[in-house]
Automatic annotation (TrEMBL):
UniProt-recorded name of the protein: Universal stress protein YxiE
CDD domains given in the database record: USP-like
UspA domain mapped to chain residues: 1-143
Organism: Paenibacillus silvae
Family: Belongs to the universal stress protein A family.
Length: 143
């Protein structure tokens, strides 16, 4: 049913559940799987007192952590017989996920939910909620 599936992974513990769902969906069909992780491309402008080299190092560490997470997720899927591509993006997670899904014609987006509720969820927003509301294709939210 879904030939192109995008899996948006995060550092949260939900990643293993996402990968398990991906295996279930892709195992019976030769779906093209894209593992995507988004890291920040800036650090808050409110941190003007922090030296710029420190901020650059922080962004580089976040990018390295993102690439490591993608590598680990790819290894898990490969052990299940699925050979995904990995994509590292920078910027606002919801925007980048939606943009990549549209540009590449994804037919399904699999994304995790951290379960933010109440005031915290209202104030911080939810990447999975934004993606599910604005996506052009079906979205599977894994809790």
């Amino acid at each position: 049913m879904f030939d192109k599936v995008m899996v948006a992974i995060d550092k949260a513990e939900i990643t293993n559940k996402l990968l398990d769902a991906t295996v279930e969906i892709a195992q019976n069909k030769q779906s093209q799987i894209s593992l995507v992780n988004v890291s920040q491309d800036y650090v808050s402008n409110g941190m003007t007192y922090v030296p710029e080299p420190f901020l650059e190092d922080l962004l580089n560490e976040m990018e390295k952590a993102s690439l490591d997470l993608l590598h680990q997720a790819k290894s898990k899927l490969k052990s299940a017989g699925i050979n995904p591509e990995t994509i590292h993006l920078k910027g606002d997670p919801a925007y980048e996920i939606l943009n990549y899904a549209r540009e590449t014609g994804q037919q399904l987006v699999i994304i995790g939910s951290r379960g933010l509720m109440g005031v915290k969820g209202m104030m911080l927003g939810s990447v999975s909620h934004k993606v599910s509301q604005l996506s052009n294709c079906p979205v599977l939210i894994v809790h």
